């Protein structure tokens, strides 16, 4: 079965995204946050000056510039400066340890590292950071051995570099995957693929100069990076969230009245369950996109009751950007990840490569001009997922008669119990319907008799009556029958991976070692 998105006329131009300038709105706000605001003209000036500053350090087109920077306005300026200069921006997850930093520096062959001063200990522990060809650039404080301060480079009065010669196929960015199935790979996007990705997202959200976009996750990950650049390309304001803390998001919702918001399920659950949040906080918002992990049915219900409109789920990958979304003007089908974005073709295939029918679960294959060029210096791994112009996602979904997709799970996470495939997301959705459950993560545990048994890890709501494992198992059996967990492990805190998703892979590894993270004594 194949489903086609609408056509997409032209890509965005990554080195020239500031549409607000072309609309004559140079003195209006382009980027706003709690600490600082920049107009379109000031944003353009800051990016140009930083590009000049990087050139003064000897950085040139094609050099990889890694960044270990939290969500701040300066990170967005850095991204724009790299795109303008032809530097290959290489954002690192801000939660990386020094070992993960070293892995990323080694794989990318980075020429320089821009790092926040609060990460001084990890930068000092790094084997590679101190020996980078163009050195370390410090931000928000001093770092031993730093060759420059980011703030000083942003105030550079050197000549603004013209866009250096090069092709649209040249690399523009390297994003590192979460590494749940092995060491993180460097997903490489060209200027062309990035341009198509930005244009597709802007079209899907129907962004206009009247919008204000709140990307409530890290701009070092493909999601909020894409939301921010798509907004700028449409002339929309960007609202910078320093963190996904509920109080930070409430403050931004009230102060800046965004019209579009994108958020991870765990952060959205925390926000709407905060005792200070009010329905009026969402009065300006026309669309809330929730994704990067499965959204539980209970969260869908709670949000709709609070905000008065439904969550819009979507699906994407670092390798292609945002791929599906429920149409923002509807109909939005609760629980569906929507339809293919403009510029996308999606096929659902079985293990032999043949198409599956309506309602049947198949593997998601995608064809789009926003597809990565490959994994940086990993030709074998690239060839495993890119075939004849299609990308094999490794994820599973089914489609209904209207062409809406319904996510079933990641192929490596499907639990096979007595020959039946069980989606961990379906079990998690059943668990969080229980009034005592805050979060749930489900994995398969090897069993000689059944193949795999279903184990659930849960955290409980502090304001609800406690529940026992037997209570939760019985509750699930009433809703999903044989798919209910055989055992439940209670945790004080649910572990999240580096991208803020439920860390099912980490739980699996701990389970195999016989350990339980944060389990009550």
Question: How is this structure best summarized?
Answer:
This protein is of the alpha/beta class and 521 residues long. The protein is built from 15 helices and 28 strands.
Describe the structure.
A hairpin with a 4-residue loop joins strand 2 and strand 3 (37-39). It contains 15 helices and 28 strands. Helix 13 (424-431) crosses helix 14 (469-480). It is 28% helix and 26% strand. It has 521 residues and is α/β, with parallel strands linked by helices. The longest helix is centred in the first third of the chain and has 17 residues, at 40-56. The chain folds into 2 domains: 2-398, 3-Layer(aba) Sandwich (Rossmann fold), CATH 3.40.50; 414-512, ANL, C-terminal domain (GMP Synthetase, Chain A, domain 3). The strands form 6 sheets. A 9-stranded mixed beta sheet has the order 3-2-12-11-13-14-15-16-17, with helices on both faces. Strands 1, 18, 19, 21, 22 and 23 form a 6-stranded antiparallel beta sheet that branches. Strands 5-4-6-7-8 form a 5-stranded parallel beta sheet, sandwiched between helices.
List its salient traits.
alpha/beta; 15 helices; about 525 residues; 6-stranded antiparallel beta sheet; about 25% strand; 28 strands
Architecture blueprint of SSEs:
Layout: E1 2-4, H1 19-22, E2 29-32, E3 37-39, H2 40-56, E4 64-68, H3 73-85, E5 88-91, H4 98-108, E6 112-116, H5 120-125, E7 136-139, E8 148-149, H6 150-154, E9 171-176, E10 186-190, H7 191-204, E11 212-216, H8 222-233, E12 237-239, H9 246-256, E13 260-263, H10 265-272, E14 287-290, H11 297-307, E15 312-317, E16 321-325, E17 339-340, E18 344-349, E19 362-368, E20 374-375, H12 379-385, E21 386-387, E22 390-399, E23 405-410, E24 415-417, E25 420-422, H13 424-431, E26 437-447, E27 451-460, H14 469-480, E28 487-490, H15 504-512
Parallel strand pairs: 2-12, 4-5, 4-6, 6-7, 7-8, 11-12, 11-13, 13-14, 14-15, 27-28
Antiparallel strand pairs: 1-18, 2-3, 9-10, 10-20, 15-16, 16-17, 18-19, 19-22, 21-22, 22-23, 24-25, 26-27
């Amino acid at each position: 079965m194949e489903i086609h998105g609408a056509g997409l006329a032209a890509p965005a131009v990554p080195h020239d995204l500031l549409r607000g300038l072309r609309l004559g709105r140079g003195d209006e706000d382009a980027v706003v946050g709690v600490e600082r605001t920049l107009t379109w003209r000031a944003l353009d000036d800051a990016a140009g000056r930083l590009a000049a500053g990087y050139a003064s350090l000897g950085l040139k087109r094609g050099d990889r510039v890694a960044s270990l920077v939290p969500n701040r306005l300066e990170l967005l300026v850095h991204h724009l400066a790299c795109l303008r200069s032809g530097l290959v921006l290489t954002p690192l997850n801000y939660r990386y340890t020094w070992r993960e930093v070293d892995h990323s520096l080694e794989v990318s062959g980075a020429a320089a590292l821009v790092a926040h001063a609060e990460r001084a200990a990890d930068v000092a522990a790094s084997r590679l950071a101190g020996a980078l060809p163009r050195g370390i650039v410090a931000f928000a404080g001093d770092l031993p051995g730093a060759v420059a301060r980011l703030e000083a480079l942003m105030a550079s009065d050197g000549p603004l570099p013209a866009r250096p010669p090069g092709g649209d196929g040249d690399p523009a960015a390297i994003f590192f995957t979460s590494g749940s199935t092995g060491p993180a790979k460097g997903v490489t996007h060209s200027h062309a693929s990035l341009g198509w990705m930005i244009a597709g997202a802007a079209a899907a959200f129907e962004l206009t100069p009247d919008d204000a976009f709140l990307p409530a996750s890290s701009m070092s990950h493909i999601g909020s990076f894409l939301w921010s650049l798509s907004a700028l390309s449409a002339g929309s304001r960007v609202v910078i969230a320093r963190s996904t803390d509920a109080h930070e998001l409430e403050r931004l919702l009230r102060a800046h009245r965004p019209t579009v918001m994108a958020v991870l399920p765990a952060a959205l659950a925390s926000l709407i369950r905060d005792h200070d949040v009010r329905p009026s906080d969402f009065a300006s918002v026309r669309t809330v996109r929730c994704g990067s992990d499965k959204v539980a049915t209970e969260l869908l219900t709670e949000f709709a009751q609070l905000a008065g409109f439904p969550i819009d789920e979507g699906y994407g990958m670092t390798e292609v950007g945002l791929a599906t979304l429920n149409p923002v003007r509807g109909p939005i089908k609760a629980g569906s990840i929507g339809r293919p974005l403009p510029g996308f073709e999606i096929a659902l295939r079985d293990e032999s490569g043949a198409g599956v029918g309506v309602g049947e679960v198949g593997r998601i294959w995608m064809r789009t001009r926003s597809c990565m060029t490959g994994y940086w210096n990993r030709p074998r791994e690239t060839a495993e997922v890119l075939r004849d112009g299609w990308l094999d996602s490794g994820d599973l979904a089914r489609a209904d008669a209207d062409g809406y997709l319904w996510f079933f799970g990641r192929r490596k996470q499907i639990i096979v119990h007595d020959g039946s495939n069980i989606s961990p997301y379906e079990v998690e959705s059943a668990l969080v319907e229980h009034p005592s459950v805050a979060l749930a993560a489900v994995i398969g545990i090897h069993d000689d008799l059944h193949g795999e048994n279903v184990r659930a890890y849960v955290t409980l709501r502090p304001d609800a009556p406690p529940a026992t494992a037997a209570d939760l198992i019985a509750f699930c059996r009433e809703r999903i029958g044989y798919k209910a967990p055989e055992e439940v492990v209670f945790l004080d805190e649910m572990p999240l991976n580096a991208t803020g998703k439920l860390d099912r892979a980490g739980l699996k590894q701990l389970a195999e070692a016989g350990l339980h993270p944060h389990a009550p004594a």
